Amino acid sequence: MTEKANETNKPEPQFFFITELIRDKVLERKGTKEEEIGRLIDLEIRQNGGYPEVVNLIVGRSFGRPPLEIPFGLVKSIDARRTVVEVPPDVKLKEFVLEPARTLIKDMILDKKIIDTDGYEVEVVYDIRLLHAEGRMLVVHVDVTKAGMLRRLHFGWLGRLLWGGVKEADLLPWRYVQPLPSDLDRFKGNVKLTISREKIADIHPADLADILEELSGEERMAVFNTLDTETAADTLEEAEPRVQRELVASMRRDRLVELFQTMTPTQIADILEILPRIDAQVLKKALPAETAVKVNELLDEQDVDLESIVTHRFLALPETALVGEALDRFRDRTTRFDVIMYVYITAEDGTLKGVIDIRELIQAEENVPLRDIMTEQVVTLSPEDTLADAATEFTDHGFRALPMIDENHKLIGVVPYKDLLAVMK
Fold first, then answer.
1. pLDDT tens profile 217-263
2. 164-169 — which CB contacts under 8 Å span 24+ positions?
3. How do residues 90-115 score in pLDDT, each as one tens digit?
4. Interatomic CA distance for residues 272 and 297, integer angstroms
């Protein structure tokens, strides 16, 4: 069999919630036959770096026999119905014995309180999201949502009916969880965060970059290839330079150009800047002419036009829209926005009417029109402003993004503060 055929047969990376796997049948493959060992009752994890890794399946058996521990490396396939393992003839499965140093997800983490850095109770762990890729399974998210609670109570179908599928933005990335305490057990210990309660709402959903950094090169590319274009672009932008270089080197050129189409010139320049000059020149030739000019300005460190760092990936709605509608749009498309802290209110002709901070939006009643809570006195930029002008406005007002309008007060785009800093550094 060729190397290409082997790659084709590799299973795609998959995300699971542990509540979807518990009570799975665990089958042992023996030649062409499969024999049931028991049912999956828990997963043992070990904290290796930023994301804990599943090391053992804990399998319950009938007739009162003690559960078995099966090394995760023996797993050949796993889904929401069955898990298949292959046990070599020279391997004898051991009975599971709970010891102080061992950590089980279902038994020790689910239903625990989440405590922030200030000691406040934030939420309850209703579910744990796992990533299965290239023979490894990592803990990547904590689910504290109502949908997670329903899934925990075996009413997952009701959560899907009410809210649809899982939304990345609603999950708490494991990177914000402190190392689990050594005395954690089913009755004591809490899950503690590395951030305060006030900052939880500010977590950007593009945390996949951190997950990719935990994986090997082959695993990383396999997961990256499963992402849609806009999520992949966000993830590439957030990754550290070493990972960016490896992803770009392994990516088809047409795929990379496709990602660039969803990025601002500043973001594209940041990627090209870490690549070998020859590779960067080739990719610049594939950019639209107008974008290439702006990217060249940024790379050459010439006088950069403020308009060159404007993004069009933000949420704009009419003043008659309701708060509930705006929240739904955010939940559905947050990962596709460069500006996630503000909603811009515009008239039919594109005139900027006001702005709403996302925190104010969350606190408002869902049936309230946006015009009732928007701020009409908006600090704006114009195409004639310089980088220094923009920096002054950001310093004076402390916003994370500022809208740019033309002479007719029509919204051109938004300048993110982080992009301004990237240009001026």
1. 777 787 787 777 877 887 887 777 778 888 888 888 888 888 888 88
2. 166/17, 166/129, 167/331, 167/332, 167/334, 168/205, 168/231, 168/334, 168/335, 169/205, 169/330, 169/331, 169/334, 169/335
3. 999 999 998 888 899 999 998 888 88
4. 13
The full set of domains in the chain, from first to last, is: 10-95 (2.30.30.240), 103-200 (2.30.30.240), 208-302 (1.25.60.10), 315-424 (3.10.580.10)
Q: Which amino acid, 18?
A: I
Extract the tokens encoding 310. 């404007």
pTM, whole model, 2 decimals? 0.53
SS (H, E, C) the chain: CCHHHHHHHCCCCEEEEHHHHCCCEEEEEECCEEEEEEEEEEEEEECCCCCCEEEEEEEECCCCCCCEEEEHHHEEEECCCEEEECCCCCCCCEECCCCCCCEEHHHHCCCCEEECCCCCEEEECCEEEEEEECCEEEEEEEECCHHHHHHHCCCHHHHHHHHCCCCHHHCEEHHHECCCCCCCCCCCCCEEECCCHHHHCCCCCCCHHHHHHHCCHHHHHHHHCCCCHHHHHHHHHHCCHHHHHHHHHHCCHHHHHHHHCCCCHHHHHHHHHCCCHHHHHHHHHCCCHHHHHHHHHHHCCCCCCHHHHCECCCEEECCCCEHHHHHHHHHHHHHHCCCCCEEEEECCCCEEEEEEEHHHHHHCCCCCEHHHCCECCCCCECCCCCHHHHHHHHHHHCCCEEEEECCCCEEEEEEEHHHHHHHHC
Spatial distance between the Cα atoms of 289 and 326, rounded to a whole number of angstroms: 35
For residue range 372-417, list pLDDT tens digits in order: 999 999 999 998 888 878 888 888 888 889 999 999 999 999 998 8
Please tell me the predicted confidence (pLDDT) of residue 8: 46
